[in-house]
């Protein structure tokens, strides 16, 4: 089943994008800031979400991990 049709998989993909974009922004900030508009702007926005809401994102990652382990 595709990640688009399974809600839990969709949430997992969104969390992974947020965490990866935040890490990439910490490592290479010039690359992320240069691509604010267009398709790559999605990753810049995800990095902003990860930076500003990091406690909530980390709690969601822990909850997602527990839900995957209990399956």
TrEMBL record:
Record field: transmembrane: 53-70
Location in the cell: Golgi apparatus membrane
Lipid bilayer topology: Single-pass type I membrane protein
Alphabetized InterPro entries for the sequence: KISH_domain (IPR051523), Ksh1 (IPR009653)
Top-level taxon of origin: Eukaryota
Membrane is among the record's keywords: yes
Chief location bin: Golgi
Function: Involved in the early part of the secretory pathway.
Homology family: Belongs to the KISH family.
Name by which UniProt lists this protein: Protein kish
